TrEMBL record:
Originating species: Gymnopus androsaceus JB14
Upper taxonomic lineage: Eukaryota, Fungi, Dikarya, Basidiomycota, Agaricomycotina
Residue span, CcmS related domain: 45-175
Ranges where the record places region Disordered: 209-230
Protein name: CcmS related domain-containing protein
InterPro entries on file: CcmS-like
Recorded superkingdom: Eukaryota
Length: 268
C-alpha cells in the first residue's frame, strides 16, 4: 500500500499507484501527459536491439549527428522543453519498477489516434542487458535514479536491422525528490550493489575488463554493509573494472583426460 505522501503526490491524477503502466498525468505539478506504447514502439527495431545474428556494434550505432534527421532533432528539442515533467515521469517509473532503467522513445513512432505525441517505454537494466550494448548498460547501471533520468532516443533503419541512438540525461525536479524522499530512500535501499550489475557483451571491450569466469564474488556474510559503501572507490575509478560476461569466449566443458594405464589396456 502506498504511503500518504505518495498518495498525496498522485491525488487527482489518472495514474494508478498499483499498476506498472502509467497512463497520463503523474502529479499535480505535471501539465504534460506521457504515454506508454506497451512495447509497440520497440517492434520496428526489436531485431536491431536484441538480435543475435550480428554484434551489437553492427546493430546499434552511436554518435550520429541529430540534426541530420528532422524527426530526431524535433524530438530532442521537445524532450529538453518538457524536461521538468519528463524528469518527474522517469522518477515515477523508477519507483514502480524498483530497479534502475531508462526511458525509451522511437523518433519514428507516434501514438495511435492521430495525436502527434511520442511514447516513452521503460526498460530496466536487466532488459537493456539483452542488447549486449556496453554503453546502454553502463548508462543504466551507473546513475543516481533519485536525481537523474536516462532517456534513449532511437531511429530505426527502414529494414529494422540497425538503429541509431542518442542519449539524454534529465534532472529530477528537487521538489518532487523532496516530496517523495521516503519512497525514494526505500527504493534505493532495495537496489543491488553496483558491483553486482554485470555487463553482457558479445566481444571483448578492452584490456581493463574482467572476465566473469575469473571474478570471485565475496560471500554474502563478508559483504560490507550499506553503511560502509562510502568507503568504496568512486564509479569513475572502477568504471572499467566491473564484471563482464563475454558470450563468445565462454570456456566449454573440459574433456575428460584418460589415465596413463588406459593407454596400455588391452580388451580381450
Amino acid at each position: 500500500m502506498p504511503s500518504k505522501t505518495l498518495a498525496h503526490a498522485y491525488n487527482g491524477t489518472t495514474t494508478s499507484l498499483n499498476t506498472g503502466i502509467p497512463r497520463n498525468k503523474i502529479n499535480e505539478y505535471t501539465n504534460v501527459q506521457f504515454h506508454d506504447s506497451k512495447g509497440a514502439a520497440l517492434i520496428p527495431f526489436q531485431q536491431a536491439l536484441f538480435g543475435r545474428a550480428r554484434k551489437a556494434k553492427d546493430r546499434i550505432h552511436w554518435m550520429f549527428p541529430p540534426d541530420k534527421d528532422e524527426r530526431v532533432e524535433q524530438l530532442l528539442t521537445w524532450i529538453q522543453t518538457v524536461s521538468y515533467s519528463l524528469g518527474t515521469y522517469g522518477l515515477h517509473r523508477f519507483l514502480q519498477s524498483r530497479e534502475r532503467g531508462a526511458l525509451i522513445t522511437n523518433a519514428d513512432y507516434r501514438i495511435p489516434g492521430g495525436k502527434n505525441e511520442p511514447a516513452f517505454d521503460w526498460l530496466t537494466f536487466d532488459q537493456l542487458q539483452e542488447t549486449r550494448d556496453k554503453t546502454m548498460q553502463e548508462s543504466a547501471a551507473f546513475y543516481d535514479p533519485s536525481s537523474q533520468v536516462i532517456v534513449f532516443v532511437f531511429l530505426p533503419s527502414k529494414s529494422g536491422n540497425s538503429v541509431a541512438i542518442w542519449r539524454r540525461k534529465i534532472n529530477v525536479p528537487n521538489n518532487m525528490r523532496l516530496m517523495l524522499q521516503a519512497e525514494v530512500s526505500l527504493a534505493l535501499a532495495a537496489l543491488r550493489y553496483e558491483e553486482d550489475y554485470v555487463v553482457h557483451v558479445d566481444e571483448y571491450p578492452g584490456t581493463h575488463a574482467i572476465s566473469q569466469t575469473h571474478l570471485k564474488h565475496p560471500s554474502p556474510e563478508r559483504r560490507p554493509s550499506r553503511l560502509r559503501r562510502a568507503s568504496l572507490p568512486s564509479r569513475n575509478e572502477y568504471r572499467d573494472a566491473y564484471p563482464v560476461i563475454i558470450e563468445e569466449t565462454r570456456p566449454g566443458k573440459p574433456k575428460k583426460k584418460r589415465k596413463w594405464w588406459q593407454f596400455f589396456r588391452v580388451d580381450w
